[in-house]
Amino acid sequence: MLANVLADAGKRVTLVERRENRRWSDSRCTSVQARVVEIFDALGLLDVLDPELHRVDGLVFYDRHAGQNQVLLDITAERVRLDCAHPHAMSVPQWRTEEALTERLTAKPTATLLRGWSFGSLT
What we know:
The chain is an alpha+beta fold. It has a domain at 29-110. Helices cover 27% and strands 20% of the residues. The chain has 4 helices and 7 strands; from the N terminus they run H-E-E-H-H-E-E-E-E-H-E. The chain has helices at residues 2-8, 34-42, 46-49, 94-106, and strands at residues 13-17, 31-32, 54-56, 60-62, 71-74, 89-91, 111-115. The strands form 3 sheets. A 3-stranded antiparallel beta sheet has the order 2-6-3. A hairpin with an 8-residue loop joins strand 4 (60-62) and strand 5 (71-74). It is globular, with a radius of gyration of 18 Å. It starts with a helix and ends in an 8-residue tail after the last strand. The relative contact order is 0.29.
């Protein structure tokens, strides 16, 4: 995401990606929080991601040892109110988020993507 913001500002950006292929089946992230949704909106990515986006109105974490009656954390929309354009999290597969960010970045004339590379050191 930062590479996109820098490229938008006219800065030269080189993104180094160890993986050669664009897609993979693992996902380390299944949702993005409200403030990230706002950044996606500012970058024009909400329309691109729209078919995959699912609104998440909140999460409730329970203590599995104490049973379903012991709430550890309740961040449902009724309990947490955010004063922003997108006051909710969105569920979207990580691969799709990365694909949209990469497509946007590589369309920029100041951006370069190096797939199959790794970064060892900076001198």
